[in-house]
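Example 3.2
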Amino acid sequence: MFVRKKNNKSGVISIQVIGKPNGKYKLLKTIGSSSDPEVTKHLYHLGLEWIDDERNKNQKEFDFSDEEQLLLSALNQIDSITESGTDALLGKIFDEIGFNVINDELFRLLVLSRLTKPGSKLNLTNYLSVYKSREYDVWEIYRYLDKFESTYKDKVQDISYNHTVKILGGEIHILFYDVTTLYFETDQMDELRVSGFSKEGRHQNPQILLGLLVSIGGYPLAYEIHAGNKFEGKTMLPIIESFKSKYKLEQLIIIADSGLLSKQNIKDLQSKGYEYILGARIKSETDLIKKQILELEIKSNQSVFINKDEYTRLLVSYSESRAKKDKHNRERGLKKLEKQIVSGKLTKSNINNRGYNKFLHLEGQIQVEIDKQKIMDDIKWDGLKGFVTNTRLSNEEIIANYAHLWNIEKAFRVVKSELEVRPIYHRLERRIQAHICIAFVSYKVYKELERQLKLKGSKLSPTKAIEIAKSIFTIQAKTSCSKKVVKRTLLMNNDQKYLADLFNLY
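Structure, written as tokens:
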């Protein structure tokens, strides 16, 4: 049996109980009708109560034991079953970081849902309704994003900064910066959403640039979005300067990969008094410096400085494991090229200098072949890595600090894959800003969950912990006489019990 709402042409809604007593659907009872939403809501609940009463009458006709009758009666009093594990786990982390000072229920829901059920806003409303007993219309969420509090960006960055300072022992001296692209599922462009070089290979799609500043350990500190065709090298100094000024920081070391390496950036960092460690493009150095690099006799895990100018030094290191990786990647790329040449899929018309296409040689009009000399020249660089720096840190400290840059690469990977922050479907800039702000907070919660799992000695990944939490449900029942609400959280297996005990959830 179920309750049905039936509309007529005059706008009056009839509340009916439908059943299937003889294998065919049949009208069992008309509860009432009205055009007033409040009245129809009341009638709908009366219909549910009528169904409960009928079921109770029918159950008495069967020969159940007293214990079974008691159990059936209890089951009939269940009011709701909701997924509660993620609210308990992620809500706890959200509060401990300090985001709960933003007293906004929908903001909290959007952040936690980005971690548990990322996707479109329409999918989100279905998820909230089915699993959380929260009723939101998709346009209600869009209107919320349109009115998204402009101060939230500064607030969440302040909260994230203060929490990060706390867990890192009170100081931040090293900042890591990188940029990625986020594409839109549309052909329309504007001043912000513009086609440009896409790190995701989506050159035909409009995109934005996302610049992210993180601490050692990969904890997010600040972000900024830029037009999709902006040169990424020009995005670094403004966010660093703003961050330094806002929190009155001194003696910062800036670490970034070779994509941010430009003469202007080095000049600006130098003039502003920053120390820096930037990934070097050693194959693009002057002929003199390249000659010096290739003449170096360094063994695995050793490094040597080469002075570039009065202020800047080039640290060159060698690693056997990196050499093996370089060789493996080159051989794999060459095999792919050879297959394309043999199959005729690689022709002069689609040759470019990207990736391992640099090993190709064009002869005459149509002859495409692999240039063996270019391969031999490339082999000389296997295992070599360069760092441009003005710091006075030791060689080992420079290499060790730069190695932490993988955390920001991981951040982008998590934001794109786990949190599914792209493709972006929003058109209005204020919605885009809100979307990125929510993703920033979600990633901070993800990183704190990861940190606490490690601190507690757990082998669970954040993703696995969230999956377990999503399987924890709470039953809410209402007693028939006193109407007292009773709740019970179900921990049905060892994984659920382990997670609940680990974080003291219930």
